Amino acid sequence: MVVVLSLAAVMAANEKNMTFAEDVAFLKKHTNAIVLKGEVGAAVAVVPAYQCRVMTSTTSVKSGEGFGWINYKLISSGKVQKHINVYGGEDRFWLGPEGGQFSIFFKDFAPFDLEHWQTPAPIDTDAYKVVQRSDSSVTCMHQFRLVNNSGTPFDVKVDRTVALIGRVKATGLLGVPDMGGVQMVGYETRNTVTNIGKAAWTEMDGALSIWILGMFKPSPTTTVILPYNTSGDGRVVNDTYFGKVPAERLKVSDGLVLFSGDGKMRTKIGLPPSRAKDVVGSYDASRNLLTIVKFTFNPEATSYVNSMWELQDKPFGGDVTNSYNDGPPKPGAKPLGPFYELETSSPAMFLSPWASHTHLSQTFHFTGPREALDKISMKVLGAELDAVSKAFK
Fold first, then answer.
1. Is position 257 within any domain?
2. Over the stretch 50-97, which tens digit does the pLDDT of each residue have?
3. Nearest-CA neighbor of 54 among 70, 38, 78, 73?
4. Cα–Cα distance between 39 and 372 in angstroms, integer?
5. Which helix (H) or strand (E) holds 7?
6. Dihedral sign, CA of 108, 333, 223, 175?
């Protein structure tokens, strides 16, 4: 039986920082949540019914905060929304492109507006099948067909594994030998897409990309950190997805793009392949929480699907990394969350029949002494946390 919280309880849950234990108890009342446990209290909660997404994680399974944003209101309602079901989750599997003539969110050359925008069920409401499970990992699988805005069909198989990352492995991956008493939770998602159709995915008819999005709790003191390649060509940042980002919400310095993650204004930015690096992050000064996402990135790959809501001159001139800050879509309207997102994409997948591509995403949350967090941030992101904290004051 599904237990529905009172409206007051649901609103309170979405407005406070729930513990991981509270998040898990709520999820298990409504769906088949799986808890993976690691070292020293680290844990993640995975929901196969929501495309095997990581809903939340913690450094302390008994009493620690849950780091992922979860939509208590929508999940407890039991209702299916029309355009998208924003369940939340700090690592969710999506596919691109979102906009353009090869979009999988718009059909039959429909206008690029919210009325005609529809998230495909395989990345929104479809449940994925659990095929393997252990105490520290779970693998899910799903097969489906999509048709893009130009009428091209895609027959797809997805294999997705979520696995915890221990401290020793994390130090090697991040190049941080000493964590200085910092608490950590780390995990990776290995996302493999296979073309199980009879036709190749081509530049002429459109291709898909793997798109991993993490939804996190916003705050007035949260700043997104996107390191960029200073020797790359062309623009550093695309800040026009939903209208130009105001200057007081976006700062570009030597090697860093800083972006407000306060959940107060609907804005989005992206970095192209000539500027992107294989890591993004964020820092919440009020919670002393450093988040880092590292992913597979080939700097020689140049074709990335374009998700701008328009007919495109360059449908494979899209971005590698993105950050979205939620807020009202128009004055007086309600936000989807609010939340903020850290997003990474694979190159466009020009796959022959039965060929595959894998995109690996690794998420780390660190809490502890500010000095120790600063050393990690400087090493991995090239960002000094005092400067980050003051970016939008």
1. yes
2. 999 999 999 999 999 999 999 999 999 999 999 999 999 999 999 999
3. 70
4. 20
5. helix 7-15
6. negative
Q: Which amino acid is at 100?
A: G
Q: Is the pTM of this model over 0.90?
A: yes
The DSSP-derived string for 109-143 is T--SSTTT----GGGTTPPPEEEEE-SSEEEEEEE
Judge contact between 154 and 147, C-beta under 8 A. Answer: yes
Burial zone of 319 (CB within 10 Å; 0-12 exposed, 13-18 middle, 19+ buried): buried
Identify the domain containing residue 153 by its residue range: 95-389
Strand 289-295 and strand 129-133: pairing? unpaired
What 3-state class would DSSP assign to 34? strand
Q: How many residues does the chain have?
A: 393
Nearest-angstrom CA–CA distance, 360 and 172: 16
Mean pLDDT of 201-215: 98
Tell me which residue of 335, 307, 336, 310 sits closest to 322, measured CA to CA.
307
Residue 179 confidence class, pLDDT cut points 50, 70, 90? confident
In this predicted structure, which of 45-54, 65-74, 172-181, 370-379 has the lowest mean pLDDT?
172-181
First to last CA, the chain: 47
The domain that contains 341 carries what CATH number?
2.70.98
Q: Looking at residue 248, what DSSP letter applies?
A: G
- The structural domain count of the chain equals 1
Taking the CA atoms of 184, 323, 155 and 86 in sequence, report the sign of the dihedral they define: positive
d(CA 226, CA 258): 6
The burial class, CB within 10 Å (0-12 / 13-18 / 19+), for 116 is middle
Query: What is the pLDDT at residue 371?
Result: 94
- What are the respective helix, strand and coil percentages of the chain, to the nearest 5? 15, 35, 50
